[in-house]
Amino acid sequence: MAGERDTIFALSSGRPPAAVAVIRISGPRASSALERLIGRVPAARRASLARLRHPATGDLIDEGLALWFPGPNSETGEDIVELQVHGGRAVIAAVLSALGELAGLRHAEAGEFTRRAFENGRMDLTAVEGLADLVAAETEAQRRQAFLQLKGLLGERADSWRERLIEAAALVEAGIDFADEDDVPSDLMARSLERIRPLADEISSAMAGQGERLREGLRVAIAGPPNAGKSTLFNRLARREAAIVSPFPGTTRDVLELHLDLGGYPVTMLDTAGIRDASDPVEREGVRRASVQASGADLVLWVIDATGQDKPSTQVPAGAWVVVNKIDLADLKDEKKIESEFINKNKIHFISSATGAGVTELVGAISGFAESFFTREAALVTRERQRAHLRETLVALQGAQQAAQEGREEIMAEHLRLAARVLGRLLGRVDVEDVLDVIFRDFCIGK
Fold this sequence. Notes:
With 447 residues, the protein is α/β, with parallel strands linked by helices. The chain contains 15 helices and 12 strands. It has helices at residues 30-38, 89-100, 112-119, 125-136, 140-150, 153-177, 188-206, 211-216, 230-238, 281-296, 332-342, 359-374, 384-405, 409-427, 433-440; strands spanning 7-11, 18-26, 48-53, 60-69, 80-87, 105-107, 218-223, 256-262, 265-271, 299-305, 321-325, 348-350.
């Protein structure tokens, strides 16, 4: 079998031990590997009870289920075998070892199953990215967005745009190549222009939204003067002693991160150093980092002391929420004074990080902010690579429209060909070898 592609195998389920482990085999020797293990090839796409034996010794390894998916109508486009065995470490090791002894079989590399599905036309590149995001999703909103991408939310739209571009280019080129023919209409360039005008608007609309940001999560910085209770609030949200709490100013020197799922949306809370003029060089660096995080955050919780220890009104960043902490130690007149200070300037929350008073309401408000920030409408663009290709497509479309206005048919046709080629790269149809390794490197083994 000279030139035959390797047949790959890997554990595709979670880390053992588990009740059931799934081992997949893909490639031209998948069926022969199945015959060596269980002595037969069962009916396609039907789970079959099977005893797995070592191909060299005949020793019984385990009893489980075997499924046979002949290509090209399989996940990878190749012949696939799926073995469902008991999920103990020894069982899995024995099955993988037996497969490794068969000629033409080898362990799969990270993402290799999905890469073969892409190479065999079972998925386009946007669906591959959607699958990677689905595996990595930690919240409901991330799962929803990734699943829609996997199912072709952007890919099908981009494929339709590309077809329309090719048709528009064909009209212009027909006008160029057959201008002397009597039966060729004289308004082909105008017809092409009519096709691409709405296309530019559609692509511009598709680029709106926060798809990339949803993958990364909302960033909320807890900032403010020293000893206001920022780290205590951080620990309250983490439900553990994640940050050191001390009565001495300047305890927090670095930025701590906490990842939360609030209402199905990913939120990263950042505990930062107290902002003040510091003489200690390490604390000064912490203050600098705190200022950077606060300026780059989507939302800033500016924590102040309800007992009136702080004079913060001139320091509060525009748009920050003022979180008045230690209300268990303050009286009503302190709260009224602070509230009057920030009226019509900042949103105010009164809490006690020590007792938990008001914290639930604060978390609910952050959750509502996250929902309004991302919106519930599914984003078409979820990666910077996708956005860059769509931007390039728009530039080419603008060039085509400009060329049409100037009556330069050849230039218009070239811009349209370029736009179609860029969308081809978005889908992975052309010129993508340089990005494949980057995309697949974060996949897990067996996917």
